[in-house]
C-alpha cells in the first residue's frame, strides 16, 4: 500500500493501526474530547444563572439523553465497528443522502469547535505566563491558537499511540485541578473560610423543583452539549483492541465519569461561593481561584489551557477518521482515504482537517470576532443533529430484531429512540431560540446570526453533497453500491492475536 491510494479491502480494514487502545485508553480519549475543565468554565455560570442552586440536577437531566444515545452507539458499533460511525450507520439504515449529511454534521461540529478551542488555548496561554495585555490582543491570540492547532494535528498525524500517551498526562492534570477544586471548596466550607457558604440541600437534586420552564430548558440545553465528545472513542474503534466491545464500554464509562464530575464541581462551587457570585460568569474559576487556591491559582489557568489543547487533538481524530471512511466508500474524493504507510493514520484527512480549521478560525476572527462567537454558539445544532440521526439509525437498522429479546427492546429500540426524540426537541428548541435577533452577537438576514450560521452550516452540507454527486467518482456511493444495508464494510476481522495496547488491551 502506498500513501497515494486508499487502503485496500483486507483483514486490516482501512489500513489503520490496530490494537492501539484498551478500555482505559479509549475512555481517556472520550473524556479528553469533552474538555471537562473548559466545559465547566464556559457553562457553569450560565447554568447557575438559569436555575440557581439546581444546576446539579440540570447536569443530571442532561446526562439522560446522552446516555440513551451512547447505547445506540454501543449497539451499532457491535454490529458495524466502522470508524465512519454516524456516516456509515446512517447510510446503512437510511441510504446515502442521510448518511452523507450525518458525516457532514460530525465534520462541521469538529471544524467549528477547533476554532473555539484554539482561541481559548491562545488566551489562556498568555494568562498563564502573566501577560494579560497579550491575552487581549486578537492577532497574538490568533497566531498562538494556530500554533496549537498545528501542533495537535502533527501529534494526530504521527499516530494514535503517541496521542494516547499525551492525553493520559493532559487529562491527569485536568482531573488533578478538578479534584483539588472540590476538596478545597468543601474544606473551606467546613472550616468556615468560604466567602458565601451555602448549605447543600436535597432540593438541589429535585427534578421537579425548577420554578421556570424556560430556565429549565435553557439550563439543560447548556448542560447537554458539554457532554459532547465522548463519541471520539467510537471513531477510534478500528484502532482499538476488541473493536466491537471496548469502544461502546468506553463511551458509557466516559459519560458516567463526566456526569459525576460536572455534578461534583457544581455542588462544590455553589456551596463555596453561593449562586449569586457565580451567575453570568464567563469563567467561574477566575472568580474563586485566588481565594481558593492562593499561590497555586495558576493551576486552574493551566488546567483550562490544557483542557483546550487536549480537546483540540482529540477533536481532530474523529473528524479525520470520518472523512477517511467517507472516501473509502466513495462519498468523498479518494485522496481523503489515504492512510500513511508508516504511521497508519488517515494522513491526508488529518492534514486537511487542520488546514480547514485554521482557515476557518483565522478567517472568522478577522471578519468579525462576534461572528466567530456566534458560530460557536450554533454548534449545538450540528451536535444534536448527528446524535439524533444516530439514534434513529439504530432503531431502523435493527428494526427486524427489536422485539426478539428484552435486551433489544431497551438497548436497540427504547433508549435510542428516546435519546433521538429528546435531541430532536433540543435541536428544534435551540433553533427557535437562535432565530431571535437578540440571541448572540450578530443579526444576519433580519434574524439571529447564530441561527443563520447553525442552520446554514448544515444546509451547506446538502450543497456539497449535491456537488460531489455530480462527479463520476461519487456514483457508486449515491447509487447505493459502495455502501448499503447488505454490503460488508471495510473493518478489521477478529484476529486471535493482535498487538497489545499501551494499557493492556482488555483492561
Automatic annotation (TrEMBL):
GO terms for molecular function: transmembrane transporter activity. It is found in: Cell membrane. Its main location: membrane. It is a multi-pass membrane protein. The chain crosses the membrane at residues 21-47, 53-73, 94-127, 139-157, 169-190, 210-230, 251-273, 293-311, 345-363, 375-398, 410-432, 444-471. Keywords: Cell membrane, Membrane, Transmembrane, Transmembrane helix. It holds the Pfam family AA_permease_2. GO terms for cellular component: plasma membrane. This is APC family permease.
